[in-house]
Queue: 2 jobs
Job 1
Amino acid sequence: FNRLDARAAQQVWPSVDARTLDRAFGQLQQQNVSFDRCTIAVKGSSAEANCNGTTRFVPRVGSRSEQTEPRQWNFSLRKANSGWQIQDVDAH
């Protein structure tokens, strides 16, 4: 997400709509997503991660000043052969 690379994001989040994500990334000059605190609950080959953090971004158009927004992410994860993958994300 920090590299604004939809294809790379799809490697860890196979169900993401890479075209839509690529369009969203195209609206940003830069972005930095950081997690301050995460709680993780693992149950066999699935897990839930709840993270609080910050998204900082600079839009490509309009005001090009950095904007900062607090966020909370809820990740549903599944263990695959290649490691943990994101199944679903709820961000607010």
Job 2
Amino acid sequence: MRVAVDSISTLLLYVEDPRSVFRFVHAFTGRIAALDALGLFAADPEAHDDRTLAMVRGAFDGRVRVRTGDRGPELLVTGLPGQPAGWQPFRLED
């Protein structure tokens, strides 16, 4: 089973206290883990301050960052075992 939340940024926009979003996401990820499922959550790092992002990040096991590198799109995976170190190129297939 896979669960995706399109944008934590939207939740943070409409909720006054980011701690409420953290508590919701923490409870939600706990249920996902109990089902041995995969949860994917997205956030726009440019839409929030570093403190808010750091707090919300605490609810997750790992993080995947995406950027446009010199030779195209790249991703960096941290916090998940068995992943290569450093930025890695990737390509989206049609």
